[in-house]
Amino acid sequence: MIRIGIVGLGYWGPNLVRCFSDIENCKVTAVCDQNYDQLLRIKDRYPGVYPIEDFDALLDRDLVDAVVIATPTVSHHQLALKALQHDLHVFVEKPLAKTVNECRELVEVAEQRNRTLFVGHVFLHASPVIKLREMIEADELGSINYISSRRLNLGPVREDVSALYDLAPHDISMMLYLLGQNPISVACSGFDRLTPGIHDVCNLTMTFEGNRIGMVHVSWLDPRKERVLTVVGDKRMVVYDDLEQEKIKVFDKGIDKPKNASGDFADFQLAYRCGGSYSPFIEEREPLKAECQEFIRCVAERDVPVTDGVNGLRVVEVLDAADRSLKMGGIPIEMATGTPVSGGVR
């Protein structure tokens, strides 16, 4: 039985308590937060958990085998490092840490201690995204031209990180996973209307090998909530709308170039292909619960997660480059490599 401690009981923490409490082979034995009222609320609902305000005190007591960190981003590195140094397995909500160097240190320490380091890129455990990957692997969409996403809403506004760090990790992780590569360059623009230095709206463009791009638009100043990702292949196109009942819709649409063009002008005209559309069957499951189950499995079996520390590092590398581009007026930032990402699709 793997004993779990949930650290941080704000917006997301109670959901993690609920999910881990429903999973076999593990038990939530402790919850940690500086807000004692929130600790009592969780204690009332889950009488078996031990509430504690001091993270160091939690680590010093034999209460947990693994910790789940759902605190503000700026604290991720410090808390995760301490837990790893106490030989605990660690689940960290996205992003893994604030800087690339912090992520690298966590990856190195987890490897040295032979502990599982798991990052909460929840959409990589969502059935629609797994289905998208299967379709790309099976060449149902053809060669991928680009992927675009819109993650918009009116709030919630963060004061510790920008919309880029708060919202874009979801879409960056999905695009790296689906394309199977790290980008070769990153550019980002945006503006900070509410709080100077904290951007409310960002437009991120990632360039990949093979003349492919990924475009991410995030905002917490938009009147409508949108969670849409579009994959455009040269055979078919797919729209994944997380707010719809039918999450994925496949469109048999495209633009075909002439294969055997002669010297006539008409032979060089592009052909617009407008076929039908359909929604494939997807066995639905709650992504967060699936993610929690995968963490427990990887800890129990000593398996490497798809969303391991290296995966978290790759996403933060993109965020770091995007942040630098943002501060320099949108100038593209060259990345160190465009090498394939483990678990993705080439």
How would you describe this protein?
- The chain has 346 residues and is an alpha/beta fold.
- Helix content is 32%, strand content 29%.
- Helix 4 (76-85) runs parallel beside helix 5 (100-113) and helix 7 (163-179) crosses helix 9.
- The chain is globular and about 75 Å long.
- Residues 342-346 have low confidence and may be disordered.
Q: How many domains would you count in the coordinates?
A: 2
Q: Into which percent range does the helicity of residues fall?
A: 25-40%
Instruction: Describe the main β-sheet briefly.
Output: 9 strands, mixed
Count helical runs.
Answer: 9
Q: Please state the structural category.
A: alpha/beta
Overall pLDDT: 92
Name of the CATH class of the largest domain: Alpha Beta
Order of helices and strands: EHEHEHEHEHEHEHEEEEEEEHHE
Could you say what the CATH topology of the largest domain is called? Dihydrodipicolinate Reductase, domain 2
The CATH architecture of the largest domain comes to 2-Layer Sandwich
The Cα radius of gyration reads 22 Å
Low-pLDDT segments, ≥5 res = 342-346
Give the DSSP E fraction (strand runs of 2 or more residues): 25-35%
Could you give the count of β-strands?
15
Q: How are the strands of the largest sheet arranged?
A: 14-13-12-11-7-10-9-8-15
| Global geometry | globular
